[in-house]
Amino acid sequence: MLAALIIVFREVIEAGLIVGIVLAATKGVHARGRWIAFGVGAGALGACVVAAFAGQIANMFSGAGQELFNASILLLAVAMLTWHNVWMAGHGREMARHMKAMGTAVSAGERSLAALAVVVGVAVLREGSEVVLFLYGIGQSTTPISMLTGGLLGLAAGAAVSALMYFGLLAIPPGKLFRTTAWLITLLAAGMASQAVLFLQNGGYLNVLTRSLWDTSWLLPDGGEGITAIIGKMLHTLVGYTAAPDGAQLIAYAATIAAILGLMRWEHARHPRRQMVPRPA
């Protein structure tokens, strides 16, 4: 039971933190619940499909299909997160102005929600498929009731931690919420890009700069069991923390941040703040 609890708790936290950031980033946007619920549902369905065909995926591309698949969905998520931040850089002020005036966001905000729904779906797909595969592995050495009990407890605990993260973000003053979530999404995208590079390296598709630059796993591991490992996994999800990154991962991380910030600044410059025109007397 304990093994199932830890596995589900860890994976739910990873997906839940991403969902919490997305919910906070779209606070006040019309129909955000529908889009995000759609992403969660599609991701859960996809996770079941991936788990059901895990063997076939692993045998694709000379046994490296799983790594290529993981890298592909992570890079898709990076693209969607980048698109959201860049779009918000140009339309964020307009949305905020409409929310203050009418209590709702501009209808164009759904364009950004579509991208974030994909990100939520990818997060649930990735973590959900890992849960299914891990539970299948430990299911050989435990009873179904014990595994189900541990899984439900882990789900509840992970959801509680994710909710705390979400409400903590909502406590941030509205004027600073967009800036905070923009930075979180940028770091989230950078971490995903770094992890995609690692998957490509493990699959044999990228064989440059593979030497680890440092190793802090003795202080804060990003995997395994225990409190420090869970904290490491949370930081891994939030800011892309890796205990032993290599050169290619570090370059991908830094390049993603630079690209997102550069595109945001460019989009921001394309939509200058509108000047208030005085009404005629």
Describe the structure.
- The protein has 281 residues and is mostly helical.
- The protein has one domain (2-270).
- It is built from 9 helices and no strands.
- The chain has helices at 2-25, 32-52, 54-63, 65-102, 109-138, 144-170, 174-202, 227-239, 247-270.
- The chain is globular and about 60 Å long.
- The model is unreliable at 98-108 and 274-281 (pLDDT under 50).
Write the layout of secondary structure elements.
Blueprint: H1 2-25, H2 32-52, H3 54-63, H4 65-102, H5 109-138, H6 144-170, H7 174-202, H8 227-239, H9 247-270
Helix pairs in contact: 1-5, 1-6, 1-7, 1-8, 2-5, 3-4, 4-5, 4-7, 4-9, 7-8, 7-9
Low-pLDDT segments:
98-108, 274-281
Helicity range of the residues? over 70%
Taken from the alpha-carbon principal axes, the silhouette is globular
Assembly state: single chain
**Between the first and last Cα atoms, what is the distance in angstroms?**
74 Å
Q: What portion of the residues fall into strands of 2 or more residues?
A: under 5%
Radius of gyration: 20 Å
- Helix-strand sequence: HHHHHHHHH
What is the domain total for the residues?
1
Q: Roughly what is the average pLDDT, rounded to an integer?
A: 75
By DSSP, the count of extended strands is 0
Tally of helical runs: 9
For the largest beta-sheet, the strand count, sense and barrel status come to: none
